[in-house]
Fold these 2 entries.
Entry 1:
Amino acid sequence: MNFELSTTDASAVTLQKCDALLVLINSTFKASSGALSTLVAKAQKAGDLSEKPGSLLDIYRPVGLECKRLVLVQLGQAQPNDVRKAVSNAIGLIKVSQPKDLVVFFEQTPESGALRATMLTLADASYSYITTKTKPEARSIRHVNLAMPNSAALASPFKRFVATVLGIELAKEWGNRPANHASPSLFAQAACKLAKFARIKCQVLDAKALHKLGMGAFLAVAQGSAEPLQFIVLRYNGSTKTQPPVVLVGKGITFDSGGISLKPAAEMDEMKFDMCGAASVLGVFRALAELQPAINVVGLIPACENLPGSRAVKPGDVVTSMSGQTIEILNTDAEGRLVLCDALTYAERFKPCAVVDIATLTGACVIALGAVRSGLFCNDPHLSAALQAAGDSSQDPCWLMPLDDDYAEGLKTNFADVANVAGRPAGAISAAKFLQRFASTYAWAHLDIAGTAWKSGTAKGATGRPVGLLLDYLLDATKPAKVL
Ligand code: BES
Ligand code: MN
Ligand code: ZN
């Protein structure tokens, strides 16, 4: 989908040829001269376009206009939520006629938040997964012209939103692929494909290399599957070598059966989404490739399957992590923290200014926060503030959760330095407390995206979150939280 930003007035826009013209109207609309404005004023006066955000009026081949279809779209106060609802209603309406060329005219030049909501919703509402279908309904929209009275101030946000959409779509693609089409090896290939862009490098470590490094926790998770694990190291070098990077660590379990602590059959298919953290890291790199900002970023992705094979790790097994700490694996279904802990130790070598891990880590986080906000856990107040701000600005919000040491009580065991599970209460927090033990030498944050990374039910599919949050954090949080 190609976006274009342009400055146009209400009379010029009527002369644009397109399959559909969406005219976005604010509740503060005041009629002026011109055919379009008169039409809107008449429709409102007659009560055919209500003031409720999301109301639509659909007009076929309007006389005197060059579009095949005109849709008046009520934004109300044009808050991001209003815009999202209105634009998705409008796309839902016109989708049947498979429009290719769209003009979206903002009757009033929008705030950047409303432009973001429009672009993200246009992309999302017209998205179609096609990779493993023989007769897919591909996205019809090719080109969208975002027209408004004065677009000058929005040129730079527009570029960021275009890049965000590219990143989100890559994250969705890999999130949605079934596990047999997104094995650790295929995923590593996708990561390495990003190295064709300027300033991006990709390296993949295999099991042999990880044995040498002593990544006993990650290796233990992978050993139940015939699919070889992959440890992916992505680098985006946009600044000088001396500038400490932000390290992003994405959980890349391409399928989570639970292992010997097998999950119930119902909805187990959704565990193909257990690499959405890793997919969001790919998405961020895709966006960085587009924007080429002057920052350094490292992406670390431990990728493997969690299966109950004959060599699988067993409940009660004790393994030694790369940090040297021993871990009693009481539940093989708490595998995410095991692959992440070794990646967090590996992150130390980059002398990072901050490390952010992103993981579909716990069902408990879904219970706590649902699909609205991702769980944020953090050992540094500057970093947590920056991530919260990025969540808000990107409309991809998170919520700060506590990390009191008392939450780690349940991780104590008689047989190792730490157990990989505590009891059921506060399960998202005890998981974070486990990770925190491996992140003591740098500013660290953990995003539990178990509730936000994908949707279930008829709308089943990856959301591409939290690509938007991460990107805004990287681009806006200019002051490193803590430099080692
Ligand atoms: N990938 C799951 C977390 C998950 C479950 C995400 C359901 C979204 C929906 C993770 O590996 C897991 O299985 N976690 C366990 C931890 C438990 C054994 C302490 C969980 O949440 O049940
Ligand atoms: Mn699991
Ligand atoms: Zn998992």
Entry 2:
Amino acid sequence: MKKNFIFLTETESTNNYANRLLLSKAAEEGTVVLSQFQTKGKGQQGNYWESESGKNLLASYIFQPSWLKATDQFLLSKVVSVAITDLLAEENIDTRIKWPNDIYVENKKIAGILIENSITGMFLHASIAGIGLNLNQSVFVSDAPNPVSLKQVTGNDYQIETIAEQLWEKLKIRYNELKTGNPAVINSVYMNRLFRYGQWALYARQSEVFEARITGIGQFGQLQLEHSDGKITEHFFKEVEFVI
Ligand code: BTN
């Protein structure tokens, strides 16, 4: 995989830019689009991703996992979240993956991931892994519930380009591990780093708040919860929320 970084000052969304490159066949695996600022940074579920200009990592890493079955695409989500936690562990920050793929330092969100896949037949064609990692921002103004930056945690300043390259190395390792090996490794690391795995905690569904604990994650990324009466339920993204 050849590394090819594209640095932009401003774009609507690095994911959209990466998508246009793919559509015009101008991108191959290893292309990474970075921008200082996004005018329409995309979060999950149509939310806006807040990031002050020049302060944080806003990057879209392009993969072409034509070897991965579409039904296994949640494995890519695991690869990306685990790679970010690998990187932050090197900075001595202990992070957890809040299902499905938010990266947390204690009870605060330090990074968000938006993966956009295209599929051909039964297999994946291209995957755009959009990553927003808060580095140097110290004030957050949007209504995102609990953002935090690396600088707020350590007091240090970070160089976006250096972090982007280090993350690329971590992504390559986890991606190749999945490509050439067996998914058991990524599955077990993901579970080991899962926020509140096995712990009784509060969750909300519509207006109901209940106590439950995570017992597993299904093949399609469904959250499996055990309730106080022993019943197990499965939930897709946004059907339940963590009470934090
Ligand atoms: C989330 O809501 O947690 C996902 C946030 C993903 C944000 C990143 S920033 C780089 C890339 N480009 C986008 O428009 N979104 C992702």
